[in-house]
Protein 1
Amino acid sequence: YLKIHVMNRVNNLEGIVSDWSYWDKPYPKSVPRKILARPFQWLPDLVLVVQGVRRSGKSTLLAQIAESRKLPPRRCYFVNFEDPRLSTWLNPALLAQIVKLSGSGEEESYFFFDEIQEVEEWEKWLHVQVERPGNRHFIITGSNASLLAGELSTALTGRHRTLDVYPFDFEEYQQLKPAHTLEQYLDDGGFPKALQVDDPPGLLREYFK
């Protein structure tokens, strides 16, 4: 019974990863973030940390990273750990099973772990991964900048680089609202989702609360 349970769980995991990944679907259309204009090199022994406040566009940025760097979609494994289907399995064993989906590790593989802070002892697990030789790359996001900074300073010292994501600046804002002025931008703000609803101030108040 236990073996069947484990096999079913692993099979379900591949389906969950498939749902979040872009193996058989196009990347979503979105405003290109200027932060991606910065050059950076993929290094297996460095974790790329994407951090910022909630709703600033971190998850969308992950897809933009994969698309703009022309990474093979089938070698990119996306997971959002706030998915309720994973709620009883948020531990290092889950991370290990996701990595196992990529095979032997001889091919370049990219793991986009969204809201990594939901997983117990994720920082220790990552520290071990980057110490091992291989072609696996880890890109992670977290909403709590202070939490990430504290854990990274102790567990991943010298093993990570950080991209700080903020809401849209005025130039990015104008890609959605080309006729709007700076004054309107100051009223609307730069949170991406709020710019796509009929009542931006109402949604922004919810963010503030």
Protein 2
Amino acid sequence: SRIPKESLAPSKINQADFPPCIQKLLADLVHSVNVPHLGRVALAIYLIKAGLGDEQISALFSAAPDYDPDTTRYQVEYARKKGYSMPSCATMDSWGVCVAQCRCFSPLKFRQAIHGKYAQASLSETAKTDDKILKKDL
């Protein structure tokens, strides 16, 4: 007998409200950049909390250079079953996956209307600093 496919629940978090760290992790996956393990864990937890189903989440990881459908499905299901908490921004920073100072304390609390201006300001400052470093190296 065939097992019915999981119904795909609508997202509880609007994609426009995904924080810069989550947007970067997703963009890296789409472009087949090898996202570090802890980045993948954080992304999976965030997407579970955002209301995506296991099949949707697994499909997002399919562009990873070392993608294995069985391993990915197992790890996503395991994270859901264990009910892991979303890592705080401080933890995300220590893992090297924080890309902006949003002042939201947790990626789950990020809202574009509230924290977006802080994120944009810090991203702009980072870009200016990167430009100065590049110009100095040339």
Protein 3
Amino acid sequence: MVPSSDAKLSTQVLSNVAEANDAAFSAVTAPDVETDGGSGAATPTSKDAVEAGVDHAGWDSEVPEDIEVGDSITFTKTMHDEDVRRFAASSGDTNPLHLDEDFAEETRFNGRIAHGILVSGTISAALARIPGDVVYLSQDLEFLAPVEIGDRVTADCTVAEDLGNNQFRLTTTVTNADGDTVIDGEAVVLILTE
């Protein structure tokens, strides 16, 4: 049977749509490895396998063996352009302040900044390194200063109070490489251990 012209046209349209989808996907996905601002450290991309409990090159964390009042858990990473673009794509927050350099240069920040919620994710990253199952019960945040693209930030979560029933109140801060606090807050988590 010879395909009709409608069938040929439908096949061509489907082919074009598939090619457009491939091109769009390529535009929003990162290369396999991105280096950490000249330091040579690789940062994971959307194509990399992210494994539970594994720090990638360019990530640093410190976790005490047993969690007690006064203990701190830290997580450090650089806020790369690709992190910001992937967060915008996955969250839908396409505010030009985060994505459009020309627009952002005309704002009070004089350039693009990372999403505050993306930066606050480093708090969650620190908590994810606590041994056991950690469940967020609450998180209060105060955004104190912007984080520019390329800034290296450290989240510090300090156990302030044992609330009983495996619940803990923590102070949570994120600082930039200059030691300035960019986010301040408090969290309550449930920590279940074996």
